[in-house]
């Protein structure tokens, strides 16, 4: 075992003779003792390494020790470091299936952040993002909407509506609004997201195409056919322009257009688009591909209902 002082890091490093990674934890806990301010940091770093490697059982006690050591220091409990450990442990508990424990720690980290930075600080956005995602997974959509709207408003205020993090916030909020059935609000946020993406990535970027086609399907499936119609038509136009009229990507929009036309009662138009999509998918993906079977099934059902 080789022990040395790292001038750059300002820390003692212990390198095992077998060449494995240096370990500062043993020195800090046994020589410098838990009272040393950097000990919780080291525990948290090692816990994060184990967490990232999938060793949840090894990581959890280290996270908890880091939190206990931080709380035992003479500084105030409401520190940035405490909030970080709470957030990291929350992520581990979430991954381990303990959503109750994860939520409790995310909310504690949020409360600490609010006490340190205020309730509308940009320092809170990551915690709000994670808490909102957890609540969404738990299908507590009302609470998730409140949290994600707060995150989005902070991003709007500090970064503007064209910042990548703001656009991601809009995407997440749109998903929650769709899940809770608030289609009007979902459509509003998706159109705002599309406008931001068009400014930042260009009107024909793959992300713009994805969001536009998804919005058309979301509106269609919610029964908002009149609103879905212009979005779907524009999606077809852009997919054909970017990928070509005989591309697999265009076939996806043809199939979606066929479904919309069927719901609108235009069976002849629906058949025409289904057949275009089917021909491309049979050629490009093969007759037995799942995507080919999907559009074939839609066409066969349409033809059965016409007879």
Structure described in brief:
This protein has 307 residues and is mainly alpha-helical. Helices cover 75% and strands 3% of the residues.
Spell out the blueprint of helices and strands.
Elements: E1 2-6, E2 11-15, H1 25-32, H2 39-52, H3 56-72, H4 80-96, H5 99-117, H6 125-137, H7 141-159, H8 164-179, H9 183-201, H10 206-221, H11 225-243, H12 248-264, H13 267-284, H14 290-306
Antiparallel strand pairs: 1-2
Describe the structure.
With 307 residues, the protein is mainly alpha-helical. Among the domains are: 20-118, Tetratricopeptide repeat domain (Serine Threonine Protein Phosphatase 5, Tetratricopeptide repeat), CATH 1.25.40; 202-307, Tetratricopeptide repeat domain (Serine Threonine Protein Phosphatase 5, Tetratricopeptide repeat), CATH 1.25.40. It has helices at 25-32, 39-52, 56-72, 80-96, 99-117, 125-137, 141-159, 164-179, 183-201, 206-221, 225-243, 248-264, 267-284, 290-306; strands at 2-6, 11-15. It has a two-stranded antiparallel ribbon with strand order 1-2. Strand 1 (2-6) and strand 2 form a beta hairpin. The radius of gyration is 26 Å and the shape is elongated. Residues 1-14 have low confidence and may be disordered.
């Amino acid at each position: 075992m080789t022990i040395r002082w790292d001038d750059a890091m300002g820390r003692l490093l212990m390198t095992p003779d077998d060449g494995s990674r240096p370990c500062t934890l043993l020195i800090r806990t046994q020589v410098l003792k838990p009272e040393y301010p950097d000990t919780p940091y080291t525990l948290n770093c090692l816990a994060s390494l184990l967490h990232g490697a999938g060793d949840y059982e090894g990581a959890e006690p280290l996270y908890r020790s880091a939190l206990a050591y931080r709380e035992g220091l003479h500084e105030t409990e409401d520190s940035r470091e405490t909030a970080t450990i709470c957030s990291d442990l929350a992520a581990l508990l979430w991954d381990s299936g303990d959503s109750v424990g994860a939520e409790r720690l995310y909310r504690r980290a949020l409360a600490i952040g609010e006490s340190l930075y205020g309730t509308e600080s940009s320092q809170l956005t990551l915690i709000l993002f994670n808490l909102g995602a957890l609540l969404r997974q738990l299908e507590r959509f009302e609470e998730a909407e409140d949290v994600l709207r707060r995150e989005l408003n902070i991003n709007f205020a500090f970064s503007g509506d064209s910042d990548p993090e703001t656009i991601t916030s809009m995407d997440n909020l749109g998903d929650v609004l769709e899940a809770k059935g608030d289609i009007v609000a979902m459509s509003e946020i998706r159109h705002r997201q599309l406008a931001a993406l068009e400014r930042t990535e260009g009107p024909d970027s793959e992300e713009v195409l994805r969001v536009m086609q998804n919005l058309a399907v979301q509106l269609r499936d919610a029964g908002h056919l009149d609103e879905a119609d212009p979005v779907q038509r524009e999606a077809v136009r852009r997919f054909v322009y970017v990928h070509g009229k005989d591309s697999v990507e265009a076939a996806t929009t043809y199939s979606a257009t066929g479904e919309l036309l069927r719901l609108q009662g235009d069976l002849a138009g629906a058949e025409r688009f289904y057949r275009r999509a089917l021909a491309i998918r049979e050629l490009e993906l093969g007759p037995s591909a799942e995507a080919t079977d999907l559009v074939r099934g839609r066409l066969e059902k349409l033809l059965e209902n016409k007879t």
